[in-house]
């Protein structure tokens, strides 16, 4: 089946995904019977273009690599801003990969609402809209008979969400625990090598793991959002980031790390969600974990999640949690799942 | 949607699954819209009964717990042997959970062929038919427009197969490595505590982890079958158990284990599959792994698998690999996936 895609956001994630559909064109066709037709790209920096007869994805990548606007190199409807772009695009699937404002979820939230209301399937890697409007958006998608897939919002391409929804389908999840932020885990790992927090943070910034303003990571907002997303799926809850008890890693001293190591422990920023008699709870706090444990072995930018279940006990999934190609892979896996469901509809 | 199920095999796995559909009846209906109607059970020991107006699953469990034949407690068509049972059952889904002969795949292989040829969906936990006739059975299912799901064949309910097929959809897998046999891992863990191989094996037999004839486990046939199944999925191959280079753990001495520990290593029975220029390769052999690694932390009956991929690097999944409830959960997850696909057909 051919699926017509419109991309909103052509940054690291958008280009990571586009690179995959270029490289894997034949593989997707032969293995899954999936043909991707790119009918529009809309980006605040690289311009907006729609062409219902198709845009060559390699040409889009080449243009941006050369610093050229997409509007320079493609024919079609040009300059449409995102909401209008969604209306005009004639896409089956809108892929939302813009930057997130985690207070408002905008502009992604409006893009997703618009696309769903027009009866288009949506795939997003955008955490803000999903965590702030989980219930509203999943209900809206259901009422419109379309799919909303967002596996890239937690642990990037490592399939934490798909494992929860599909792999553990039918299980009751009692608790979720995770090392969900690679930047802070990298800093804590570097501190074990003897760097102070400030030195390790600077190193992470130099390597591109931490932003100039590192507060989303070191103050634990990012893992708070991710654990809320997982909790909302697992417990059918509607937690917002502010509902998550949150303590970052700024206060951790080199001597705390060394003292823990002497006792066979490592300090990790652990996100947890669970249910008790008073409802659904979530927190992100530094914890001491045994070196001799799965979490104790998660070093550098690696992420991990543990689902504690009724029938299977504790199930661990461990892998990378960030990167353009990794996030692109999350979108690709969502697209393949969507395609397999749509194939059933036309049987 | 209501799905009519016929169960073949009412041993540990069949009863584990049946127990789940009793306990989770309301949960399955409210969360997934799935209503399970049991229309037949066929077991070599407990008898065979078909009743298209439905069999009470709790009554079936109670009968067997009390040592009674199913034919004693239910009305309906009684005594049909498996192939005839499949024909008469009027089921949408045949769940095949019999004992495996790994040389022939029988009797499960004939059951699965029959059900698929009659246009019935099949869910199985039966490794033999899947490893011996992977290509044939998946092609047959496709040609009949029905689904063949077998996630319980590797790592039981821990979703190793669903992660490979769904979670990593779109990835190229370059290598698979796994600790896929809980019995041998339990024996090796006990040997670290100072037991000899013979003592540890006896302990595993007392606990019910090892059979009286332990050769399927200790001679590595079981993990050889499992790695062949994973390789066949990942690499679209058609490996048989005999194609897997195989070395078990009988030759491992206590002093080997101790010597490895002194060097910061543990001996694990590791299954591997990979592709190189001359084709698809697989082996199961004892390997020394670092204590400070994910595999090094897999102790007792726990299983683990690592998929080495192009876009995501190494992805680890760790959890239990055996047990009646765990295998029942694998069948349940398959059933929920099947149901979600069939729901699309009737939209």
Describe the structure.
- The structure is a homodimer of 347-residue chains.
- With 347 residues, chain A is of the alpha/beta class.
- Chain A has 2 domains: 2-157 and 325-345, NAD(P)-binding Rossmann-like Domain (Rossmann fold, 3-Layer(aba) Sandwich), CATH 3.40.50.720; 162-320, Dihydrodipicolinate Reductase, domain 2 (2-Layer Sandwich), CATH 3.30.360.10.
- Chain A has helices spanning 12-23, 25-32, 57-65, 70-73, 82-88, 108-117, 127-132, 134-144, 160-167, 182-192, 197-206, 215-218, 221-235, 254-262, 324-345, and strands at residues 2-8, 35-43, 47-50, 77-78, 93-96, 121-124, 148-149, 173-179, 245-246, 265-276, 279-290, 302-309, 313-320.
- In chain A, the strands form 2 sheets. In chain A, strands 4-3-2-1-5-6-7 form a 7-stranded mixed beta sheet, with helices on both faces. In chain A, strands 9-11-10-8-12-13 form a 6-stranded mixed beta sheet.
- In chain A, helix 1 (12-23) packs across helix 2, helix 1 (12-23) packs across helix 15 (324-345) and helix 10 crosses helix 11 (197-206).
- The longest helix of chain A has 22 residues, at 324-345.
- The first copy, chain A, is globular, with a radius of gyration of 21 Å.
- The interface between A and B is large, with 51 and 51 residues.
Strand content of chain A: 15-25%
Unreliable residue stretches of chain A: none
Name of the CATH homologous superfamily of the largest domain in chain A? NAD(P)-binding Rossmann-like Domain
Strand order of the largest sheet of chain A: 4-3-2-1-5-6-7
Output the CATH class name of the largest domain in chain A. Alpha Beta
Q: Which structural class best describes the helix and strand composition of chain A? A: alpha/beta
By DSSP, the count of extended strands of chain A is 13
**Counting H and I runs of at least 4 residues, what is the number of helices of chain A?**
15
- The multimeric state of the shown protein is homodimer
CATH topology of the largest domain in chain A: Rossmann fold
Global geometry of chain A: globular
Largest interface: A-B, 51 and 51 residues
Please give the CATH architecture of the largest domain in chain A: 3-Layer(aba) Sandwich
Compute the CA-based radius of gyration of chain A: 21 Å
Query: What number is the mean pLDDT of chain A?
Result: 97
Please tell me the total number of domains of chain A: 2
Q: Helix content range of the residues of chain A, please? A: 40-55%
Instruction: Note the run of SSEs of chain A as H and E.
Output: EHHEEHHEHEHEHHEHEHHHHEHEEEEH
